[in-house]
Amino acid sequence: MQLGRVIGRVWSTVKNASLEGQRLLLVQPCHADGSPSGNPIVCADGTGSAGAGELIYWCRGREASFAFLPQEVVTDNTIVAIIDEMHLAGPGGGQS
User: Fold this and answer.
1) How many whole angstroms separate alpha carbon 84 and alpha carbon 52?
2) Which of 8, 46, 52, 69 would give a disulfide with 78, using CB separation of 3.0 to 4.6 Å?
3) Which of 21-25, 63-67, 87-91 has the least mean pLDDT?
4) How many Cβ atoms are within 10 Å of 75's Cβ, its own excluded?
5) Hey, is 17 helix, strand or coil?
6) Are the C-beta atoms of 75 and 65 separated by less than 8 Å?
């Protein structure tokens, strides 16, 4: 899983039938400190409730479709969790 931030939505009038009813969101991959990491990507919303500005976990590849089982959804990237809180260890081992 990788960190990302939802930065927008994608609308598509023509798509694979397995994507009908699935929300597509634009995600900026990011590092743990929130700084951008790479180019934005399109993710299917496996949580059904991710929104703009939220910090999320996403996965890619074959595992991306597992969030929708038993449905077979064709997706390369899927949001699998919304992060409520994140605690990072500081340089001295303490939390910051």
Assistant:
1) 14
2) 46
3) 87-91
4) 22
5) helix
6) yes
> Is residue 64 a contact partner of residue 77, using CB atoms and an 8 Å limit?
yes
Strand pairing category for 55-60 and 2-10: antiparallel
pLDDT in the model for residue 23: 93
Q: Which amino acid is at 16?
A: N
Sequence-distant (≥ 6) Cβ neighbours of residue 65 within 8 angstroms: 72, 73, 74, 75, 78
Residues 35-81 have pLDDT tens digits of: 999 999 999 999 999 999 999 999 999 999 999 999 889 999 999 99
Q: So where are the chain's domains?
A: 2-12+21-70
pTM for the predicted model, two decimal places: 0.85
Q: What's the CATH code, domain 2-12+21-70?
A: 2.40.50.220
What pLDDT, on a 0 to 100 scale, did the predictor assign at position 88? 81
CB 2 within 8 A of CB 58: yes
Q: Which residue has the tokens 């038993």?
A: 70
Q: Which two tokens stand for residue 54?
A: 């939220």
